[in-house]
């Protein structure tokens, strides 16, 4: 199934999204990717979900094919608000959301802002408890040409070496996978936007905010996640009052890439 690809200007920035329309689906699932990623990260999960659900996969700024404006405020709260505005514009009423890694934090911010909109949330390897960048790091983002240093830093190890860290079974890494994850770095404007994100990003939601969320949440984790270790999942499961945690053996951080069928099975059972 091929998606309908669209871009729309909201809050002063272009948001790109892909829509997989299902003629008979009664439920809509919204996908939010993680840091330095895009809708590409759900490429192996979407074919399963699209059999049963109407799917909307969003590139949140400054990633993927969405805008990288230096006038946009790259906080979780503003990104979440912008996505909610998009969903209102496309007519979404009551949805399920899936957030991977940083996308999970954005989903949690969406729930805090609009608990009426989101029926249930699936948080895959969700980031958590990361504080705001320290003052001296935020100050560095004002240094002229800082984007060049960010570019050099991110390219130092390369996409392939980073993928070897985030997946458990490295045999799944192929040319198509490498090409898909390195594509965002072909656009130089993203590095300036990343500097702004480092400056703007507030810390992850505190325990008291998490404890106020009543929306049912399913937490999916890999037992070999080196990016967001399992102890974060356990802590989130403790702080989110209406949540459950499922741990997969011999998997890393990219569950939608590594075990899409198993992830799909858990999601459909939860929904």
Automatic annotation (TrEMBL):
One of its GO terms (molecular function) is hydrolase activity. Residues 28-257 form the AB hydrolase-1 domain. It comes from the Bacteria. PANTHER family: ALPHA/BETA-HYDROLASES SUPERFAMILY PROTEIN, LIPASE-RELATED. InterPro entries: AB_hydrolase_1, AB_hydrolase_fold, Epox_hydrolase-like. Keywords: Hydrolase. This is Alpha/beta hydrolase. The keyword Oxidoreductase does not apply. Gene3D superfamilies: alpha/beta hydrolase. The lineage of its organism: Bacteria, Bacillati, Bacillota, Bacilli, Bacillales. Pfam families: Abhydrolase_1.
């Amino acid at each position: 199934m091929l998606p309908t690809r669209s871009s729309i200007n909201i809050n002063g920035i272009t948001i790109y999204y892909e829509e997989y329309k299902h003629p008979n689906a009664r439920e809509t699932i919204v996908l939010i990717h993680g840091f330095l990623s895009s809708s590409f990260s759900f490429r192996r999960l979407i074919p399963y979900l699209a059999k049963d659900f109407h799917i909307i996969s969003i590139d949140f700024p400054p990633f993927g094919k969405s805008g990288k404006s230096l006038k946009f405020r790259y906080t979780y709260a503003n990104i979440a608000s912008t996505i909610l505005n998009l969903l209102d514009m496309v007519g979404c009423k009551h949805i399920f959301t899936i957030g991977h890694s940083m996308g999970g934090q954005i989903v949690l911010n969406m729930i805090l802002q609009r608990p009426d909109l989101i029926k249930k949330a699936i948080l895959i390897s969700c980031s958590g408890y990361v504080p705001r960048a320290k003052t001296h790091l935020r100050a560095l983002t004002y240094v002229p040409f800082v984007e060049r240093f960010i570019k050099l830093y991110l390219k130092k190890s390369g996409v392939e070496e980073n993928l070897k860290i985030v997946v458990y079974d490295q045999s799944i890494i192929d040319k198509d996978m490498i090409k898909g994850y390195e594509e965002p770095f072909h656009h130089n404007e993203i590095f300036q936007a990343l500097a702004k994100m480092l400056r703007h990003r507030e810390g992850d939601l505190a325990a008291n905010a998490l404890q106020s969320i009543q929306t049912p949440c399913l937490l999916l984790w890999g037992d070999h996640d080196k990016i967001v270790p399992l102890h974060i999942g356990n802590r989130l499961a403790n702080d989110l009052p209406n949540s459950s945690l499922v741990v997969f053996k011999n998997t890393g951080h990219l569950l939608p890439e590594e075990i899409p069928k198993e992830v799909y099975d858990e999601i459909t059972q939860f929904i």
